[in-house]
Amino acid sequence: MKKDNLKDQYRINEKIRVKEVRLVGDNVEQGVYPLSEALEFARAQNLDLIEISPNAVPPVCRILDYQKFIYQQKKRQKEQKAKSVKIVVKEIRFGPQTDDHDYNFKLKHAKNFLEEGAKVKAYVFFKGRSILFKEQGEVLLLRFANDLEDYAKVEQLPLLEGKKMIIMLAPKKLGIVQKKLVKPESAVEQKIEEE
């Protein structure tokens, strides 16, 4: 069974070990109270005293139903997780003397990755003495970035890290790519209409 981290995160009722607390919330008059008085307020309403901000001086507490509070916290975390964007990074590997056919094949894959919204990490791997051809590797990566300028923007220029020269490309907004793809078709249609 999965351990619940939220339940251990907040101290409630008698587990709170301070002399005074600051009460906040809708169902209580806000202010600083002795702990015993704050606990009495909570018991009178059949609710729990929950320490929200333990590092404040005095600690901030609320009077709520603890189970409902934990449920709301879990729900909030779930919403934040759903809103977060997962970034996928796809790698494309070149050699310093990659021929045109292989280059075009990898370029086609990179376009597909960028259209799907993934970042592309292209790198030239230097084996043995091929490190002597780092200029060729840099030219290859810059050509790659230039060929993908309609689909991606360069996040990191070619950088040599050990035996790899790396360039990072991030996808441009999808709307821009689609507009550029639509323009040539409309130009052809205009020529046909003029004839």
Give the arrangement of secondary structure elements.
Blueprint lengths: L4 H5 L10 E5 L6 E4 H10 L3 E6 L6 E5 L1 H18 L5 E6 L5 H16 L3 E7 L8 H14 L4 E10 L2 E8 L2 H21 L1
Parallel strand pairs: 1-4, 5-6
Antiparallel strand pairs: 1-2, 3-4, 6-8, 7-8
Overall mean pLDDT:
81
Quickly give the CATH architecture of the largest domain.
2-Layer Sandwich
Q: What is the tally of beta strands?
A: 8
What is the helix tally?
6
Q: What fraction strand?
A: 25-35%
Task: Tell me the Rg in angstroms.
Answer: 30 Å
Structural class: alpha/beta
| Multimeric organization | single chain
Q: Which CATH first-tier class of the largest domain would you pick?
A: Alpha Beta
Low-confidence stretches: 175-195
Strand line-up in the sheet with most strands = 2-1-4-3
Largest sheet: 4 strands, mixed
**H/E element string?**
HEEHEEHEHEHEEH
Q: How far apart are the first and last residues' alpha carbons, in Å?
A: 73 Å
* Helicity, as a percent range: 40-55%
Coarse shape: rod-shaped
CATH T-level topology of the largest domain: Translation Initiation Factor IF3
Return the domain count: 2
Characterise this structure:
- The longest helix has 21 residues.
- The strands form two sheets. A four-stranded mixed sheet has the order 2-1-4-3. The chain has a four-stranded mixed sheet with strand order 5-6-8-7, with helices on one face.
- The chain is an alpha/beta fold and 195 residues long.
- The protein is rod-shaped.
- The chain has two domains: 76 residues, Ubiquitin-like (UB roll) (Roll); 86 residues, 2-Layer Sandwich (Translation Initiation Factor IF3).
- The relative contact order is 0.09.
- It is built from six helices and eight strands, in the order H-E-E-H-E-E-H-E-H-E-H-E-E-H.
